[in-house]
Amino acid sequence: QAAAIFNSAFGSFLGIVITPLLLLLFLGSSSSVPFPSIFSQLFMTVVVPLIIGQIVRRYIKDWLERKKPPFGAISSCVLLMIIYTTFCDTFANPNIDLDKFSLIIIVFIIFSIQMSFMVLTFLFSTRNNSTFTPADTVAIVFCSTHKSLTLGIPMLKIVFAGYEHLSLISVPLLIYHPAQILLGSLLVPTIKSWMVSRQKALKLTRQPKAPVKV
After folding, report:
1. What is the value of pTM for the model shown?
2. Where does the chain cross the membrane (predicted)?
3. Residue 209 domain flag
């Protein structure tokens, strides 16, 4: 959980610098970045709710454990609404100018990038001299390669407010988020089995060997 929170916050702040540079490199377009405004808005949308949640949790923890509100279902519904409204807002723009063939190519590239990142992080975290546990590897594979619409889209709207190609820039993120959900859902059973078997193997290797009687 700590790794996921750090990845989300750090990735958002890093994107403020990297996104305009990539836009300038690939599209030849520039954009002014209002850093004070972006940092303050990200602070209010990420850090402040986290702090308030941790403080409130201390006082209502027992009540939450008794009542067990369906926060998981609520967050999933909110996330689906964000994805749906963002799709509608993006593809309803008549100036998006994106043909079907280009959209298929984008989908293929994004799936390839997502799989490549997951494979590379898995190989990196399971190398021979690595000190990561199997549980660490699972966290690294999923947390370091994922990006959420809940922060990505607001950040794009803040950084590129008034930019005429904003809808076109949002398309890769709109595809990347469902792609990571799909790939993650497909990989969960496999990577869970790998983690359990690896943990059992590590326990067996760490058990002291019984003395051999002569």
Report:
1. 0.65
2. 5-26, 38-59, 71-92, 104-125, 137-160, 166-188
3. no
Residue 176 resides in a domain: yes
Structurally, the chain folds into a number of domains equal to 1
**Separation between Cα atoms, residue 58 and residue 136, nearest integer Å:** 27
Domain, as residue range, for 141: 1-199
210 CB neighbour count, 10 Å cutoff: 6
8 Å CB contact between 12 and 43: no
CA–CA distance, 91 with 99 (Å, rounded to integer)? 11
In a domain, 205, yes or no: no
User: What's the rounded Cα separation, in Å, for the pair 118 and 179?
Assistant: 12
Q: What does the pLDDT average to over 51-57? A: 83
| Widest CA span in the chain | 85
- DSSP codes joined into one string, 4-34: HHHHHHHHHHHHHHHHHHHHHHHH-------
**Could you give the CA distance from residue 53 to residue 9 in angstroms, rounded to a whole number?**
16
Take residue 37 and report the two structure tokens written for it.
């405004």
State pLDDT tens for residues 59-110.
888 888 888 888 778 877 887 787 777 777 777 766 666 777 888 888 899 8
Residue 120 pLDDT: 92
Is 161 a domain residue? yes
Asked whether the beta carbons of 30 and 170 are under 8 A apart, the reply is: no
Q: Is the model more confident about 205 or about 63?
A: 63
Instruction: Give the HSE-up count for residue 96: Cα atoms under 13 Å, Cβ half-sphere.
Output: 19
